[in-house]
Design brief:
It is a single chain. The protein is built from 12 helices and 12 strands. By secondary structure, the protein is an alpha/beta fold. Helix 4 runs parallel beside helix 11 and helix 5 packs parallel to helix 10. The termini are far apart.
Length: 290
């Protein structure tokens, strides 16, 4: 893919800037009535591949393109979670299903311990699961180009500080955590079903970076920081952190378009990766909503 074609492709796939309320108006009523799965991609090409795979199963999912990078991914995910949770609560109230004026001890404890924006509100998330889905890089020998990775964890591999003695993660600095665990049961189930469907899939950690790897040295450094790294993306940790704030489990699904290492655009197989993402999406309802 030459420079001009790549730039054209990025422009075509850049997510439109639209309000979350516009994106979810048609689903606010159904969100109040049934639990759903939120799938978050970076760009429209990934979103369209997921929707093609879901086909007539799309009614059980909301799929959004939140933008490139962990900040956009976290903001878009949090906005979607907040809007649909609020819509579900408003719909329930409109139908006369108000919360008890004096909740019992278990209800009070659950409401007060709920993380993030829903803490103490009495609202419950309208989604049962959030999935970060898209194409990305695969670490050679762990995730081949054209294969899939269903992550065991999402790690912000460049969140920390450089020191004279090397990189220190945010965990080592004592400022928080750079890791969000995936839902282990659902991750294992999804990998099994993908394998049963004849798709090449592996586990391991999906690292999230703000700058895509383009050298062998950086790839080696990422493996030093995260020894079980299988895939590289730019959104997974952001999506998972937003989901964690709302008390919703998360998964990351990556279709591998290129090897993590020296940047070689001629070796990228974006179409193959999008086809793999579409194929994986075709079985998501059976695995994730059953």
């Amino acid at each position: 893919m030459n420079e001009q074609k790549q730039n054209d492709s990025i422009e075509r796939n850049r997510p439109e800037t639209t309000s979350v309320s516009n994106s979810f108006e048609t689903n606010s009523t159904s969100a109040a009535a049934t639990k759903r799965v939120l799938i978050v991609t970076a760009v429209d090409a990934e979103k369209e591949a997921v929707l093609r795979g879901l086909g007539d199963q799309a009614a059980y999912f909301d799929v959004i393109a939140a933008g490139v990078g962990p900040a956009s991914a976290a903001a878009g995910t949090a906005a979607a979670l907040a809007f649909v949770s609020a819509a579900a609560g408003a719909s329930a109230l409109a139908q006369g299903f108000a919360a008890p004026s004096e909740p019992d001890a278990a209800q009070a404890s659950a409401a007060s311990s709920r993380p993030g924006p829903l803490a103490g509100t009495g609202l419950t998330p309208a989604y049962t699961l959030v999935v970060s889905a898209g194409i990305g890089g695969g670490f050679p020998g762990r995730a081949d180009v054209g294969s899939l990775v269903v992550a065991d964890a999402m790690v912000a591999a460049d969140l920390g500080s450089q020191t004279p003695d090397g990189f220190l993660s945010v965990d080592e600095l004592g400022f928080g955590s750079s890791r969000v665990a995936a839902d282990a049961v659902l991750a294992a189930r999804l990998r099994h079903e993908l394998q049963q469907a004849g798709l090449a899939v592996s586990g391991g950690t999906a690292v999230t970076v703000s700058t895509a790897t383009g050298t062998a040295e950086t790839a080696a450094e990422l493996l030093r920081r995260v020894p079980d790294a299988a895939a590289e993306g730019m959104e997974g940790f952001g999506v998972a952190t937003a989901a964690q704030q709302f008390g919703v489990p998360a998964l990351e699904l990556r279709a591998i378009s290129n090897a993590v290492g020296p940047r070689d655009r001629d070796a990228w197989r974006i179409k193959d990766a999008l086809d793999a993402l579409q194929a994986a999406s075709s079985i998501l309802r059976e695995v994730l909503t059953s």
